[in-house]
Specification:
Length: about 270
Amino acid sequence: MRKIELISEQNGKLSDLLERAGVRYNEIFKALRNKDIKVNGARVKVNVDVHKDDKVEIFLSERKEALAKVVYQDDNILVVDKTVNQEVEGENGLASQFSALAVHRLDRNTTGLVLLAKNRDAQEALFECFKKKWITKKYICQVYGQTDFKGETQKAFLVKDEKNSFVKIYDRPVKNSKQIETIFKTLKNDGDSSFVECELLSGRTHQIRAHLAHLGHPIIGDGKYGKNIVNEKFKEKYQKLHCFYLKINKISPKFEYLSQKEFFSNPKFYKII
C-alpha cells in the first residue's frame, strides 16, 4: 500500500481535492468503498465535503503493470489493444489497470481496440457519442465454412438470458426481443474457414458471435456459440474475433491498429489454416 497525505487549501468535494493531487477517479472510489480514506483522522466511505485546512489521508494499492498495449492517448481518452483473457471492467479489468473509466466493453476473449475515458467529462461525452452512433467499430473474425457476404446489412432479433449470460437469435420478433443489425463482408475464403469483416449497427450483448452462429457460420474457437467439434479441429480455445478499427466520427481521427494485410500475416493473432 502507498499513502498520500494532503491538507485541503479550499472548501469542496473530497474527490475534487484528490483528483487535483493526481489520484485517479477509479482509485478514489475504490478507496472509498474499502474505507481507505481518512478525513481529520476519521475513515469515510462517501464523497464528503472537505474544508480548508482539513487533513486527508488516502491509502492506495500499488498500481499493477497494465497488460494491454496503448495505441493512442491524449488528455481525455485512451485506446488500448486488448488481448485474450482480459476483462474491460472489474477490479482487475483494463479500466482499473489504467485507472480510467470504461465506456464500452469487449468480451473477455475478444481481442482488439478498447476505448477508455480519462475523466468523468470525457466519459459522459463518449457515452453521448455512442448514443448518437458517432462511433464506428469494425471487427474481423474467422468463421467455420465458406461465406459469401457482400457487405449487406443482416437483420435479426435477439433475446438476452441474463441469468445464463447467453443470447438467442430469431429471424422474426418474439417476446422480449430487440432488433439487431450487423454488416458482414467476406474478406477471404480459406478451406473450411472464412475471414469476415463485421460492423455493428446495433450494440447488443454477444451480437456478432450469436448472429454468425445463427447464420450457420460460428466463429472458430467460440466455446459458447460455436461447435466443440469445430474448435477441436482448428485447435482453438478462444473465439477468433478482433476489433481492428475504431473511429470517433466528427471529433477524432480513426484508430486502425492492424491493417487487414497485417492481420492475415501476423501469427500473434490468427493463423490461416
